[in-house]
Design a protein that fits this description.
This protein is an alpha+beta fold. It has one domain: Cytochrome P450 (Cytochrome p450, Orthogonal Bundle), CATH 1.10.630. Strands 1-2-10-7-3 form a 5-stranded mixed sheet, with helices on both faces. The protein has a 3-stranded antiparallel sheet with strand order 4-14-11. Helix 8 packs across helix 10. Bound molecules: protoporphyrin IX containing FE. Protoporphyrin IX containing FE binds next to helix 6, helix 10 and helix 14. Pfam families: p450.
Length: 423
């Protein structure tokens, strides 16, 4: 019986499965290539990271279009940086950004780009919307989004798993949490899709920002039971947030769902590329939680996080000065052979699996429970219905140094082998 149609990687291409090589890749001693988006689209960043973990775990990159920065590639170093926000500040940006663009407009204003103690208060305004309880309350909504997306794909007989399935599930859910009315969610989907595909900031998207200015005004006049109202009517240090802070935080939350979509889509792809693991999961559904964690580790959709050192600090004998930028390469930490036995193996039963895909410490992904639930619900639906999903062409990887994963996964879709019982 075919569930996801079991199929090897299309065309033997590296496809969208980040870290695709079954064998550890050949060492490549050229860390400077890491800032080239083309490497992440068509090359083998894992080969470089593997070499760096062994030979240059604390590596200095000189200034070019990007500022100078330090690269960390070992699990323990990445985790330590995440867990020490006093030494490694997020307030000047958490992503590498060309010098010509200046500082990130969200610096010091969005959740991701603030330091304690302000960060804690800001997170407090949003945390309830992402709690286990809140996510449980959203499960029916997510399941419906999954079923709608799959039903449409079946109807057409084909789909792009990124655009038609994963992106929709991810975006509709955050829209609902923020408080975007159902009738506006399609427009929001269009704007985010445009921005993500063009690798442009949502903050520069006039349609998107104009819409949120209007919605913010409406929630100021009349609060509703949604996250936007919590931001509009909440306070940090006894002061209300500025309009700019509210808007940038909405943009940050919607932007963060790019990771959500990538985890879902790359998760499907990982299973298609590993038929034996798919068969294991199908035979033993108790593996689902472990499979979800392995998908997060394997796909590691957040490629890097950046921090700025607040004081001089030494790591493995290299001195990092106050003001220096430090970049942690998350997929590298998640393949660290000192922590993960057989790290280049996709193993749906892997335990323990203390990956760093969702970061660690103060800035641990606020959407983590939601992302995990979405993954579980998507996989459950696909496995339960036995819908046939089979690659109809090579998956294409994103050209980005910020997020990793598939830009598109063309699939042929065949109807479920048995209709779902009527509710
Ligand atoms: C449901 C979708 C998601 C939403 C709404 C979301 C939202 C967020 C937000 C708002 C933050 C900042 C938290 C803070 O500073 O306190 C964050 C951090 C983070 N998220 Fe997520 N996220 C989602 C899914 C994911 C996924 C699937 C991944 C990776 C697999 C991911 C990886 C991360 C990482 C690495 C950080 C730390 C960033 C940093 O501080 O440098 N997120 N997320």
């Amino acid at each position: 019986m075919t569930v996801l149609t079991e199929h090897p990687a299309p065309g033997g291409a590296p496809a969208g499965g980040p870290g695709r090589p079954a064998e550890p890749p050949e060492p490549v001693g050229r860390p400077e290539l890491l800032v080239d988006p083309a490497l992440h689209a068509t090359g083998d960043p894992h080969g470089i990271w593997r070499w760096m973990r062994e030979h240059a775990p604390v590596h200095r990159h000189e200034e070019g279009d990007l500022p100078a920065f330090w690269s960390l590639t070992r699990y323990e170093d990445i985790r330590a940086v995440y867990r020490d926000p006093a030494t490694f500040s997020s307030a000047h940006g958490v992503l590498l950004r060309p010098l010509a663009l200046g500082e990130d407009p969200g610096a010091g204003q969005t959740l991701a780009l603030t330091d304690p103690p302000r960060h804690k208060q800001l997170r407090g305004l949003m945390a309830d919307w992402f709690s286990t309880r809140a996510v449980r309350g959203l499960e029916d909504f997510v399941r419906d989004a999954v079923r709608d997306a799959l039903a449409r794909a079946v109807e057409r007989g084909t789909c792009d798993a990124v655009h038609d399935v994963a992106a929709r599930i991810s975006l509709y859910t955050i829209a609902r949490i923020i408080g975007v009315p159902r009738e506006d969610q399609e427009a929001l989907f269009r704007w985010t899709d445009e921005a993500f595909l063009a690798h442009r900031s949502l903050a520069a998207h006039h349609g998107f920002m104009g819409y949120f200015i209007d919605l913010m005004d409406r929630r100021a006049a009349e609060p509703a039971d949604d996250l936007l109202s919590s931001l509009v009517h909440g306070t940090v240090d006894g002061e209300p947030l500025t309009e700019e802070e509210i808007l940038l935080n909405c943009e940050n939350l919607v932007g963060a769902t790019e990771n959500g979509r990538l985890a879902l889509a790359a998760g499907l792809l990982a299973l298609l590329e590993h038929p034996a693991e798919l068969a294991r999961l199908r035979a033993d559904r108790a593996l689902l939680p472990a499979a979800g964690e392995e998908i997060l580790r394997w796909t590691s959709s957040a490629t890097h996080s950046m921090r700025t050192a607040t004081r001089p600090v030494e790591i493995r004998g290299r001195r990092i000065e106050a003001g220096d930028r430090v970049v942690v390469w998350v997929p590298s930490g998640n393949r660290d052979e000192d922590v993960f036995p057989d790290p280049y193996r996709f193993d749906v039963g892997r335990t323990p699996n203390r990956h760093l895909a969702l970061a660690a410490g103060e800035h641990f992904c606020i959407g983590s429970t939601l992302a995990r639930a979405q993954l579980r619900l998507l996989l459950t639906e696909v496995l339960d219905t036995g819908i046939g999903l089979e690659p109809s062409g090579p998956a294409v990887r994103l050209r980005s140094i910020h997020v990793a994963g598939p830009e598109s996964i063309p699939l042929r879709v065949t109807p479920p082998r048995r209709p779902r019982p009527a509710a």
